[in-house]
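Pasting as-is:
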Amino acid sequence: MRASGTLRRYSKANLLRFLWTPTYAVEPPDRTTVTGHWRLFFRRLQRRFGRQPLAAVTETGSARGRLHGHFGASRFLSIEVVQSCWPWGRVHVGDPWRMPGKLESGELAAYLAKYVKKGFAGLPDDSPKHRAAGEHRYLVAQGFQPERVSGRAPSARRVLAGVMDVMGVPERVFAYGERGADPFYGYWASWPERAWLRRPR
């Protein structure tokens, strides 16, 4: 799913590692209302803490089907201030009984992306035709999107070399699929967190 991949890349590129779970005292009527709350919440956080990357997803709880959300940030935020920016209910550090408040960025990226794939448990407004133009299953603070770098090369080995020019040396590389003159058809590679940092402009 393209949305989950985009969210994962945003989270890793901005080293989001702090997780919170805002909940509702009174359940909102629909997902569109929740999206509006996220936007207002993000603006309040930016005013209180300064501009920073943030990513949020909305989900329906597995037990009672209630709408709530999760969001990630790149640095520690005071829970008292975060709570003051979310007047619709309580904010929990981490995801209670599931995930702690501080994670590796790859772990948090995967956790948020999981809820994008999960969708909204069949709610009628979850299908693309019921979403407004440009509306996604997630919300991110603008101005922090990772830069897309693309290129072509005559072989998988050259592709890997080109990626290493941008990302540096990977932690792990696995080759697969011997094919023709090129010893391998493809490579799977993993880079350390510092390689995903957005480069200063």
